[in-house]
Please model this.
Amino acid sequence: MARYYTDEHEWIDVEGDTATVGITDYAQEQLGDIVFVETPEVGTMVDKGGDAAVVESVKAASDVYAPISGEVVEGNAALEEDPALVNTSPEENGWFFKMTIGDKDELDGLMDAKAYEAFVAGL
Amino acid sequence: MSEDISDTHPDDMPEKPVLPLDAWHRKMGARMVEFAGYQMPIQYAGEHLLHGGGIVAEHNWTREHAGLFDVSHMGQLGVEGPDGDMQAAADALEALLPGDISSLSEGKMRYSLLIDEDGGILDDLIVTNAGPRYTMVVNGACKWDDIAHIREHLPDDITLTHYDDYALLALQGPKAGAVLEELVPGTGKLVFMTAGLFEWNGAHIWVSRSGYTGEDGFEISVPADKVEEFADALVANEHVQPVGLGARDSLRLEAGLPLYGHDLTTETDPVSARLLFALTKSRRESGGWMGHAPVAEKLANGTQTKRVGLKVEGRMPAREGALVFDGDKEIGRVTSGGFSPTLGHPIAMAYVASDYAKTDTALQIEVRGKRLDAVVTPMPFVPQNYYRGE
Model:
């Protein structure tokens, strides 16, 4: 399994033909208390860099973008009951959705953990 | 959360103004954001914080203990007649405000409005009889416009002073009374909407029992060079923790209190905003204040829209700008909204067509193409908890 990061603070775990997407610990800390997450419907086609989900903190609504193109195959139902999972476990239990990998080449432009760490350190 | 500052006068503002507690907030772990032309704390973070930091924790701390807010961005103004002539000052203010100022006795405070010629709301404010003058606290984002407006309309023998060398703190929450009494003896005797001059460590401080969270509490005007020391003395009490603008917004929304620039603008008027308590009865008839004629017309004939509270079903917040519907018919717009930490569901304020303003009216709000069910609900959403005496 390989994990990649975007400069919009999403992470994507690639396992075979599917991938899991969430937001990073840095992102959840910036957003603050999450009160609602709108995950995409199963079957939604998402485009790399396009809107995929919405995360609502007490303060504001923020878009979550698709790191790559593909089809949504599952939304994280646990977030409906407990959106705060994004705060407590952003890079594990607080994942947003699973998707197919439309074009493996799109992963090439993403950061690995080390590059993302350096990116965040520079913000 | 942001406040529109586009119409402040840059010419009147000092370059890159820094509020007196700027360094103190950073030391306390604040995340600073630009607000009303200043860097202000939106929320705090860090192990040292008893509430743990974050908007919800800070919100809940204020409802249960006492939150310390820096509201030094607000304008603290004084209006004084020749040789302290209070009647002359009151007359001058009554030409601009729809409230009865003359009968306000010393130490008493009143919520009021600056209204333009068309009946639109320029700002909301608190006026206090602080003999030998009246003082006013106005919104930070409006203060330069307010000053210009008031100056333009005050008679020449009335002096307007901007106390920009004073910080303003708000201490809010059920523990505020006991905490401040211990630090500044005598303040515990103040009741809601009264104020007085006190002394702390050789400094004169002006203490009002008021605030904008729905909780008991105080607003305290402190000389800028003393305020860091005073803030330290307050947070030295285990019941007091710093609270940022984020929680200030969620607290005032739960308390049903409108926020200028959002729920009140020049496009709204005191009648549709349902702020009739700011229009003293005698003065509704006598007039003599700017905007009286258009406001009187609205009082007599009603308004097309009214400000209402909405309880939103589910968990998805409806925010400022969201449109309100009755079926296919668009009937209003949300002016502030968010998730209520105290109630555990979203709440909102909206202006809706007056036919739909009755309590329990079922409406829908459109958010990102989805319709959320909402019900008109009396405000405050969370009961206010003011101290009116034993």
Q: What stands out?
A: The radius of gyration of chain B is 21 Å. DSSP finds nine helices and 19 strands in chain B. Chain B touches chain A at residues 1, 42-43, 45, 54-57, 59, 246, 250, 315-317, 319, 338-339, 341, 346, 368 (CB under 8 Å).
